[in-house]
Design brief:
This protein is an all-alpha fold. It has 2 domains: about 90 residues, no CATH class; about 130 residues. It contains 13 helices and no strands.
Length: about 240
């Protein structure tokens, strides 16, 4: 499909109610308000197409950029392009989608995570800790000491970081705690010392999960069945 045809399809699938929901979660104009289920269905129909993804991103439309992440071809993106896209993101839902569908699937995740997590930009810091959670869930090659070091960083820095970065740091702590028994104990101890993680979710029903009960429930389930995969909470999205 051409970019013109895709934009027309997005416009046809949008609704004022969904657009209002997205605005409450931080999305800005222009946007159509296309449900995530419809975006996923359209992305499946389109397949991976980096040329189209770049055109969708360049449109500046919030729905088009979400779709652009879904159809992007990570193997065709380098750090310069990833950094450029991230620099233009200004709400957390798009950060999550960008990380999950693009940045986590492009080679160089470890170095990218370290570089982004130290940024004082709230969106870039969020992206870095989203990547740390991804590594805790997906990279079996990393030793426990790698994650213990990052738990210490989270404990030391979380209160001084930006709103959405704090949320992502809490999610990364949970993902680390779910990884195995040793890290479960370490993450719970770190969470006890940190205390409540306060995040402003604005005019939404989203909450930042309490780390300790989330970890304990997830690990309890893991002990009674062999898990198909470990899952940490995504930053809340509409």
């Amino acid at each position: 499909m051409t970019i013109e045809a895709v934009m027309a399809e997005l416009a046809a699938r949008g609704s004022p109610q969904t657009a209002d929901l997205y605005r409450r979660h931080g999305a800005r104009e222009p946007l159509f308000g296309v449900r995530f289920a419809d975006l996923r269905a359209l992305a499946k129909h389109l397949g991976r197409d980096q040329g189209l993804a770049r055109q969708l991103w360049a449109s500046g439309n919030a729905d088009a950029r979400l779709l652009g992440c879904m159809v992007a071809e990570p193997a065709q993106m380098g750090d310069a392009e990833l950094d450029a896209w991230l620099a233009e993101i200004d709400y957390y839902v798009l950060v999550d989608e960008f990380v999950g569908d693009v940045a986590a699937k492009t080679p160089g995740v470890h170095d990218r995570m370290e570089r982004w997590r130290t940024s004082r930009s709230d969106w870039t810091g969020q992206a870095g800790y989203d990547l740390l959670a991804y590594l805790a869930m997906k990279d079996a090659s990393l030793p426990d000491d790698y994650f213990l070091a990052h738990l210490a960083i989270i404990e030391r820095e979380i209160r001084g970081r930006g709103n959405r970065t704090r949320h992502a740091m809490n999610n990364a702590l949970i993902a680390i705690g779910i990884r195995n028994h040793r890290l479960e104990a370490a993450a719970i101890e770190a969470s006890e010392r940190i205390g409540e993680v306060v995040v402003d979710h604005g005019e939404t029903g989203c909450v930042t999960p309490a780390a300790i009960p989330y970890i304990e429930r997830s690990r309890a389930r893991a002990r009674v069945r062999k898990p198909a995969g470990t899952r940490a909470p995504r930053a809340s999205s509409p």
